[in-house]
Amino acid sequence: MSESSPILEARGLVKTLGGNRVLENVSLNIGRGRVKVLIGPSGAGKSTLLQCLNLLIPPDSGRVLLEGSEIDARNRRELCSFRQQVGMIFQDFNLFDHLSALDNVRVALMKVRRMSKLDATERAVAELTRVGLADKAALYPANLSGGQKQRVAIARALAMDPKVMLLDEPTSALDPELIGEVLAVIRDLAQGGMTMILATHQISFSAGLADEFIFMERGRIVEQGSPAELLAKGANSRTKAFCAKISELTGEADAEFRQ
Amino acid sequence: MSTPYLEFLSTELGPGLVAGLWTSLVVIGPSVLLGALIGLTVGVLRVYGPVPVRFVANGYVSLFRGTPLVVQVFFWYFALPFIKIGGVSIVLDPIPAAIVSFALCSGAYQSEYIRGGLNSIKRGQIRAAMALGMTTRQAVTSVVLPQAFRRALPGCGNEIVYLIKYSSLASLITVNELTGTATTIAKNSWRNIEVFCTLGVFYLFLVTVATGLLRLLEDWLSVPGFERPKS
Ligand SMILES: Nc1ncnc2c1ncn2[C@@H]1O[C@H](COP(=O)(O)OP(=O)(O)O)[C@@H](O)[C@H]1O
Ligand SMILES: [Mg+2]
Question: How close B16 gets to chain A, by Cα (Å)?
């Protein structure tokens, strides 16, 4: 069980929101250094799944395991320490608006990891440098571009030394000319061996990155497999049909899938 | 023939009102601080507290916003001593009774501004804070409250200005603050116009100073995205 032992695993997640079955018995697992890409139409349940994976949304039933041990969502300590180890990137950045870029990265280091201000500053500067924003450390979210905000959010998550990162459409809220800088950071992360589950509509980008595509529809995983396999010429997959539809609409697709 | 106004002011009215001003400050200062503290606490509980606590907190606000302040002042001063629990009753001196009334009433209003400020902060930021491993309490204290407070500050400042003015009601329970002192001087001198106009100037002065201090606080807390609207 050593080679294949997953870092993060979900078994039988079920979630009902407002009377809708949003997740219908979803199971998945991800091994160290792997990249899995979640695709599927808007409303498929990708965001809900990602937030169930770090228990920001408590599933109605099902289990989440980190490195083989089940997380008890009722144990607050365990829950907080678990979330620390699972980095999360949101579509709309969710930076802390009253804090500079530096403080956005530093605040959890000091409050959660109890680092000294000096150590936290050093670490925060290192992470901002890693995403190419060392010179923007003093700026506030109101004065950063969308791409820069998302990179600060990535630096903020990385500073917690996560074992796995969940990225929920990290470029969907960005103007087209700003998408590239964020994708470049994500590519660097993947190449550096970060374990990631990424929901995105950037098909060609993620095909070059993903070990596996997971296609979701109406709260279920409908298909999964390597991008090469699912997108192969002549393949008759739902994934391929969906991707064809997206690339047909490039540009508009991005706006349409915002929510 | 009575003495000229300036002489009246420097010998009788001025010294009297300055003494009253100090008493007013003794009432206003603690009322503002307690009111802000109550407002902050109740505001947070109304948004993030467990349901029964929210219920109680909302009840408090309805009660204290829904009854005239004069009635509340009279209650704490005149009625409270008659309430005996286990043979013990609480009798408040005039100044403490005034402070209790004003702080509780002000807290109810302040909590409205704090609640509005809290609700104006997008839930996404709390989710982001929790995703970093913060507890709900840490997310509220280090992420939501600092922003909510900035958003609530203009409203809270307004409420403090009101408090300065309604502190005059303390004169009804024999506190010799500005208004109480002025009333006494007016009775003795029969110079109502001069006395009450001068009294008005004193309040104007207090409010102006308070407004200036609040501006300074707003500027000090100002960060990009949370600036004071420049008019
Ligand atoms: N709080 C909620 N209450 C009711 N329905 C919700 C709620 N959040 C999401 N949903 C519904 O759940 C479904 C899945 O949503 P989501 O996970 O955001 O999908 P995706 O990220 O794939 O677009 C959608 O149909 C959405 O309308
Ligand atoms: Mg989504």
Answer: 46
